TrEMBL record:
Similarity comment: Belongs to the pyridoxal phosphate-binding protein YggS/PROSC family.
Location of the Alanine racemase N-terminal domain: 3-217
Name this polypeptide is given: Pyridoxal phosphate homeostasis protein
Modified residues (N6-(pyridoxal phosphate)lysine): 25
Alphabetized HAMAP family for the sequence: PLP_homeostasis
Organism: Flavobacterium jejuense
Amino acid sequence: MSIANNLTQIKSSLPEQVTLVAVSKTKPVANLMEAYDAGQRIFGENKIQEMTDKYEAMPKDIEWHMIGHVQTNKVKYMAPYVNLVHGVDSFKLLKEINKQAAKNNRVINCLLQMHIAEEDTKFGLDESELNEILDHLKLDKNELKNIKIIGLMGMATFTEDQNQIKKEFLRLKSIFDKLNTEHSQMNTLSMGMSGDYELAISCGSTMVRIGSSIFGNRNYQ
Ligand SMILES: *Cc1c(COP(=O)(O)O)cnc(C)c1O
């Protein structure tokens, strides 16, 4: 199967309200251009340097999403162009994104990453940390004008156990619903990857991050 075919097939299976982020990490620009030529305009990367190189090499009507863990000292490299940062997990990081966005006269969209998996290797906030950040934001309303929090992101445990994954997605959805009733601009729920996006959508995802099902398996050598 070609990248274009994979993309068409996946797109046609997604409900209209679900946004597809094509996760292109480790893949060469030629592969991304194949997806671009097939109509894809949203790409997700997990390393700022790699994303910036691709941003520079590719057409400028692409939306770039940072889906990986973000180091504060690297925010400045993506601040001129990034559209959505999925993995925000501290107030300190939000402040840095705000600062760098302001320098570029931009507003950068952010998702707060929640820890929903059982593994402790995955980044993210628990509910009390989430509420702490939201409280900070209420107090700092006038300060952080250059970021906009538009929702939540989460990754389920890496397991074959569909019930486990479903339980985690539903928990994230219920946190999201609570937030969404209080803050109407928080309307994006980023959950679901190649192996679990259909389940994620049935649990209420509005944004799926799909890599290997579009571009093939990644080779990390
Ligand atoms: C790599 C990655 C994906 C895509 O994974 P696939 O299984 O290849 O679809 C999605 N989300 C995040 C955060 C990732 O790092």
